[in-house]
Amino acid sequence: MGWVFLLLGVLAEATSHVALKATNGFTNPLPSAIVILGHLTAFLFLGQAMKNLPVGVVHASWAGLAIVLVTLMSNIIYKQHLDAKVWLGMVVIGIGIAIINLSSVPHTH
């Protein structure tokens, strides 16, 4: 169940970060509310994930997956297109996350 909470935390965090652009310095109420609620939700889910998974694995996975998801969402929502080198970097991040999660580190706390 820890992985489900981790993925929900990543989704909440990424949504929050993408909405941050639309806040216009926190003067636009709806995106501002999404940012605040998204961060709160992300930390609630991450706290639940850390009950079953090591802190380092949760943090590394959360950060890496959030980077990739924010980039994908920004590409779709804001039409922010990135070059092939950036996408290659995203693949490297994904490989790094997979290596961390496939390691022999026990997934307990």
Automatic annotation (TrEMBL):
PANTHER family, per the entry: MULTIDRUG TRANSPORTER EMRE, SMR FAMILY PROTON-DEPENDENT DRUG EFFLUX TRANSPORTER SUGE
Residue ranges of the TM segments: 31-50, 57-78, 84-103
InterPro entries: EmrE-like, Small_drug/metabolite_transptr, Small_multidrug_res
Subcellular location as annotated: Cell membrane
Chief location bin: membrane
Biological process (GO), any one: glycine betaine transport
This protein's name: QacE family quaternary ammonium compound efflux SMR transporter
Superkingdom of the source species: Bacteria
Family note: Belongs to the drug/metabolite transporter (DMT) superfamily. Small multidrug resistance (SMR) (TC 2.A.7.1) family.
Pfam families: Multi_Drug_Res
Molecular function (Gene Ontology), one example: amino-acid betaine transmembrane transporter activity
The keyword Ubl conjugation is assigned to this record: no
Recorded topology in the membrane: Multi-pass membrane protein
One GO CC term, this protein: plasma membrane
Key words of the record: Cell membrane, Membrane, Transmembrane, Transmembrane helix, Transport
